[in-house]
Amino acid sequence: MPCCKHPTWVPVYRWHVSHMPDDAMSTSISAAANVPLFLYPFLNTTSKTRPFEYLRLTSLGVIGALVKIDDTEVINFLLSTEIIPLCLKTMEMGSELSKTVATFIVQKILIDQVGLNYVCHTAERFFAVQKCLVSLVESLQAAPSVRLLKHIIRCFLRLTDNARAREALRTHTPLLLLDPDFTACLKDDGQTRQWLAQLLANVGLKHPDPIFAEITEPTQPLPLPPPEQ
């Protein structure tokens, strides 16, 4: 089937974006940001066959290279498209690697203030992301992945920077993140342990394992953006 043959320019473009110098990168943002539009059909497929999974993963790699730029212009453009629903779809049905890259993309979008405001602007958007993250956590019981868990925890932590999201997460944070057996995989990952400890402190919870005791005070949530006119 012709559509199953991956376009050879995608890996080349992904490499090109990730290796561009900073000055060239800044002048190419607008052109580069439009490329994902051509990749979205590959992310929208529900097929789990190897050819389509390769297309999905390669397409995510291009978008992942773009969000690594840490440029609000790129985030603004992606948010004007269907990137969040498509990433959530991949997080639900992709391979472990595709789920990891899709979660990383959501993480990078949330790290940008524009992205955090966008996701937390409505309850519908917030809970779509929250429910997908919870589902991912639950899936890791059967198939543990420290790499994926790290991105999930960072997403949850960033959401607590929004006051309304923090309040919601007080009752909607997955309890598995408090399970010493589940989080034992983080014993050698100090950064992620700190993120989890801070997340739990922000939502009024405390991990029973003493290795998470280094952070007990919540951070201050960011000021809420003004309502849209």
TrEMBL record:
This is CCR4-NOT transcription complex subunit 9. Belongs to the CNOT9 family. Gene3D superfamilies: Leucine-rich Repeat Variant. GO terms for biological process: mRNA catabolic process. The gene is CNOT9. Transmembrane segments: none annotated. One of its GO terms (cellular component) is CCR4-NOT complex. It holds the Pfam family Rcd1. It comes from Coccomyxa viridis. PANTHER family: CCR4-NOT TRANSCRIPTION COMPLEX SUBUNIT 9.
